[in-house]
Design goal:
The complex is a heterodimer. By secondary structure, chain A is mainly alpha-helical. Chain A is 73% helix and 0% strand. Chain A has helices at residues 5-19, 23-34, 37-53, 64-87, 92-95, 98-103, 105-110, 124-133, 136-147, 152-159, 163-187, 195-204. Chain B is an alpha+beta fold. Chain B is 42% helix and 19% strand. The chains are: A mainly alpha, B alpha+beta. At the A-B interface, helix 1, helix 2, helix 3, helix 8 and helix 9 of A face helix 2 and helix 3 of B.
Amino acid sequence: MLGFSTKSDKARAEFEGLVAPWLDSLYGGALRLTRNERDAEDLVQDTVMRAYRFFDKFERGTNFRAWLFKILTNTFINGYRRQVKERSLGDESERQSVEAQFFSSDTTDQAQNPEDYLLQRVMSDDVLKAIDTLPIDFRMVVILADLQEFSYKEIADILDVPVGTVMSRLFRGRRQLEAVLRKREQVEDAPLVDLNAYRERKKLA
Amino acid sequence: MPYLDGELVEADRLEVEKHLADCTPCAKQTEVSRHNRTLVRTLARAATPPMPEALRAKVFTRVRSEQAGQRQGRFLRLSAAAAGVALCAFVGHHQWRSFQRKLYVDDAASRHARQFPLEVRVPQPEALEAWFDGKLGHRVAVPRFPNAVAEGARVLNVREKQAAYIRYDAPTRASAQPRQVGLFVFGDNGNDIDVGARGEAELGNSNGYNVVTWREGDIVYQLVTDLEEDDIRELLPADPGHRPPPPVPVGRPALDVQPASFQR
């Protein structure tokens, strides 16, 4: 009489087993997309529930993590993006269009010296803040490529854009990110750390 | 750049490497890009926190309660199709209750078995109660077991119920090595777990664990352990007037679990 429950218990267990290893990275991605913990928590929950509901549609043997992130970014774009935008109307970087932002003299000037090493005194927190200043289209690609280490092809599938678009957005996103970090380096009056010393430390680590 | 991201096909990659070997400016630029890319990745990853445990628990709770809802819906449909609605509602309800209870026993046992990391490690029940304060929808009274020492605690679900989970080390008669005991404490004001209506504890088992379930008002306690039954009786504060205990199923005289609120 109760045999019918076995299948769904099994499916649920399978789903839980597949999703558990990626919760941390989903949460990390959601934090950078929404830029605040409360929305990130909601976004992760919505993403997992949606993934569970559509779990029958997931083709076994294909890339589950990429499938999860497709749901994450779609959920974000469809719901949270509008919400987040409304909340951050005062935020200049979000209000500018992607192109306007990219070609604004401010950032291009900074990007003129691409030979510069970013130095170790850039702190972890600065990197996250800098990612958060990127316009959403660049930010998504940088998050997927540099935080989540997806391939260009996977990112193209996740965002439903051509690989060429992924490459150009990633290139421009990274360049802008470096510009922001370099600017921050100049603003902060911390003593310079020797690059060789940094490399030595990295070797040891 | 695609080269650094490992996105070039073999032939193109070799081409680029050949060029880099001869062209100092390009080689320098590549080195800078490689450095910056690594630095950004390393720092970003280092600054990204893991998912909070409470959120993790909440996510699984929602998945499980969604499944329970679907199952209940299917159960009702199947039942109605299988037999007369009235008869089935009566029989079905009874079986449903015991089936549900068994699911909680199984889930508590399997979660205890999985040895989830503890979020707080202190032995004092008061400190654990303070730690749980505000984390769950109910107050958590941490039972004092005379012989067992708490190792620590965390938030951990039993099925869709968010529960306080406290792990103890308990002595055994057979060996000097203490055994682990896990205790789940969760709110059940909907009376989903059919236990303890008359104040008694139930002894069940699942996956090789003994699971003792009892209720104190709206709060359900589930104790999971691989201790033998006798050792469980030793552990739980029995009423001295009622020893030796009768065999299973354990009634009130055998496992007279004192409500935690009376133990203060």
